[in-house]
What we know:
Blueprint: H1 3-41, H2 63-72, H3 74-105, H4 111-123, H5 130-138, H6 145-150, H7 161-168, H8 175-187, H9 192-199, H10 204-215, H11 217-233, H12 236-241, H13 248-257, H14 261-270, H15 278-323
Helix pairs in contact: 1-15, 2-15, 3-7, 3-8, 3-11, 4-8, 8-11, 9-10, 11-15, 13-15, 14-15
Amino acid sequence: MTKAKALKIGHKIAINVVRYGLIISLSYMILYPLLRMISLMISHPRALGAVGGIWVPPMISLDNFWVAYGVTEFWSVLAFTVRNVSIIVVLQVLCAAFAGYAFARLRFRGMGLLFVMVLITFILPSEVLMLPQRVLFQNFDIFGIITAIRGEPINMLGEPTAMFVLAATGMGVAGGLFIYIFRQFFRGLPKELEEAAYVDGAGFLRTFFTIVFPMAKPAFLTVGTLSFIWNYNDTHFPGLFHPTTRYMSMRIQQLGSLQGGTTVMQNMINSSRDAGRIAHDVVSLETLMYDAAIIQVSTLLAILPLIVLFLVIQKQFVQGVERSGIVG
């Protein structure tokens, strides 16, 4: 073996070591929370915080799993969440597809300015629109028509209808981004088939549903998956319009707010001069640790449907991302 060939092999080995080292390190950083939650799920409550039992608990038990399962009311909350989120996804995907196709194919005055405004809705923090949106749906009306018929506007607060209206009008979670994804995808499609349909007498909507829609399955899959995941995890709109703990994200948020860690730690500080209450402080600390473990396991249960969903459609999703214009 010549010296040049040996140097080349050594250089290749060094590059591979650095490459796989970065991949392993990044994978560990991403998977660490998930692995930690799995470890807590199979840990016995008395083994929480045990020295040397971070990854493999000294006492195996599914008690934490069953407690988290009961606290979250898993199946009923999951069914309620999936039902409402699925309606939002369908409305959001259809709205984004129509808007994206219009921006990709139609030409009209002010189109550029209108598209910039669509992107601003995605860039703008949701807190900026929180107050006007709440006031709007508290007294919802359409050009005075509803007031003329009912005598008063509709109060949509406390119901998921407000989130359905936002999704159908492109103002839901990441609505501007979804419109952009569809626009980029439709701009990459050849115009010849659509022009042939126009020549044969097909209108705009018929061309969309018969020609464009079948070719846009990757974009629909990508946007639908992202919309489902983001709306499933969303706490902003459910907390603003439909504040109920029957949403999975809201149930996990409620469990976190009930932990009461600040109160426990304040009690420990206040009683630090009282030696007779040391045992009480230890019990409080153990309770805080157990509450944190239950919250972690409950979070694992909440994200488990998303993990299963990704495992089922991962191949189609990756192909859809490649063809939808996200990386372009």
